[in-house]
Amino acid sequence: MKIIMLGAPGAGKGTQAKMIADKYGIPHISTGDIFRANIKNGTELGKKAKTFMDQGLLVPDELTCDLVVDRISREDAKDGFILDGFPRTIPQAECLTDALKERGESMDYAVNVDVPDENIITRMAGRRACLNCGATYHIVNIPTKVEGICDRCGEKVVLRADDEPETVKKRLDVYHDQTQPLIEYYSNQGILKTVDGTQPMTDVFDAIVALLEA
Ligand code: ADP
Ligand code: ADP
Ligand code: ZN
């Protein structure tokens, strides 16, 4: 099963993608996590990506496409994968479509997690992320068991620098401008499914599973 998660920053793509990956035993591929790991390790890619991420801008397609094409070509992705945060632009989507076409394949589902902008700002202010293992929490909706500590790996959870309200506003503008057109792109491919992302986390998950197994 090859799935794309679409939706605004903070819509819950990552939260759902991890649960879907666990349920179906497929790798969860998050470009945001890959960039953050590169920043943490001080790589060239990390240094380049950081200048864009800090401003709420997208990392250029040239730095992003090959990375994902390479990742989905690995052995663990041969029976499927879930993409979270990629594609984010029409050129990225075309790059993905072309890479799969070369292998005689195509994506199966693009799941759009729909959440209005009004809900996003509050969600992001409460998001806490583990920069060690990629887990995300929310101080009110989805709290860690021990305050400030990741349930999965025991590291500290933090407010991401790009989750400050000013940067979130910029990211929402970028989303509407560059990423939202993908909804039509995948609708035209006949694989778009939309779920109401304002429901509680487990209800969103049940709705996605129902769509995937319909
Ligand atoms: P969110 O969880 O809020 O959707 P991500 O962790 O997916 O955010 O991404 C964080 C930042 O990393 C983005 O604002 C952007 O700068 C960069 N990024 C992640 N994925 C991509 C991508 N596919 N193309 C360009 N930039 C990306
Ligand atoms: P994205 O990957 O789309 O940027 P996340 O999965 O990181 O979004 O979720 C954004 C924030 O909202 C996190 O703090 C997360 O814990 C919280 N969250 C995720 N799903 C829900 C939900 N259904 N209801 C309320 N809060 C949620
Ligand atoms: Zn962790």
Bound small molecules, deduplicated: adenosine-5'-diphosphate, zinc ion
What value does the Rg take, in angstroms? 16 Å
Tally of discrete structural domains? 2
CATH topology group of the largest domain: Rossmann fold
Pairing-aware structural class of the strands and helices?
alpha/beta
Question: What is the first-to-last residue Cα distance?
Answer: 13 Å
SSE sequence, one letter per element: EHEHHHEHEHEEEHHEH
Q: Give the number of DSSP strands.
A: 8
**Helicity range of the residues?**
40-55%
CATH class of the largest domain: Alpha Beta
Question: Largest sheet, order of strands side by side?
Answer: 2-3-1-4-8
Low-confidence stretches: none
Query: Would you identify the CATH architecture of the largest domain?
Result: 3-Layer(aba) Sandwich
CATH superfamily of the largest domain: P-loop containing nucleotide triphosphate hydrolases
**Beta fraction of the residues?**
5-15%
The geometry reads as: globular
Overall pLDDT metric: 96
> In this structure, how is the largest beta sheet organized?
5 strands, parallel
Number of helices: 9
Q: How does this structure look, described?
A:
The chain starts with a strand and ends with a helix. The chain has 2 domains: 2-116 and 166-212, Rossmann fold (3-Layer(aba) Sandwich), CATH 3.40.50; 126-163, no CATH class. The protein is globular, with a radius of gyration of 16 Å. By secondary structure, it is of the alpha/beta class. Helix 4 packs parallel to helix 5 (90-102). The strands form 2 sheets. It has a 5-stranded parallel sheet with strand order 2-3-1-4-8, with helices on both faces. Strands 6-5-7 form a 3-stranded antiparallel sheet. The protein has 9 helices and 8 strands. The model has no long low-confidence stretch (mean pLDDT 96). The chain binds adenosine-5'-diphosphate (2 copies) and zinc ion. The site of zinc ion has 8 residues, from loops.
